[in-house]
Amino acid sequence: MIEAIEKNLQRGIQLLECITDEAYSDTSIAPYYSSIGSHMRHILDVFDCVFEGLPFAEINLINRKRNHQAEIYTEKGIAYFNATIKKLQLLKTENLDKIITVSDDLGLGVVSANYTLAAILIQAHSHAIHHFASVGYIISQLGIEFPDEDFGFNPTTPRGELLG
Fold it and tell me: What's the confidence (pLDDT) of residue 154?
């Protein structure tokens, strides 16, 4: 599991290594006018919430740090990705069946539920793929090349139907 998540996060680094700060922070693409950087920062903030809450077995997805520097400068974004991957690798020795409480605001107030560590990592991974798909739209509109052909695609997406 950790290896798959790391491989996906490496895609973000690959993209950031070949784009400018201007493209990274560009908010000109409709309909949401969000930047590549805002999506990348948001992806990593969710992982950061996991790492911050894990020692207490209480993960609060509302308490995201929203590091603005990691959202506008590729160098800071890459550093955030690398720090996230380093912390993710430390989880290889953790019990992924450990029960933790996860809290988030679903729109009508804060809700808490019991998860396993594996479940929240799967959620964070799927969340990253979802945002990479949004980033894929932005980079296609900006004329930037995709870092690889799987960027933003869930592994379960039937690819043959997309090509036909």
Answer: 79
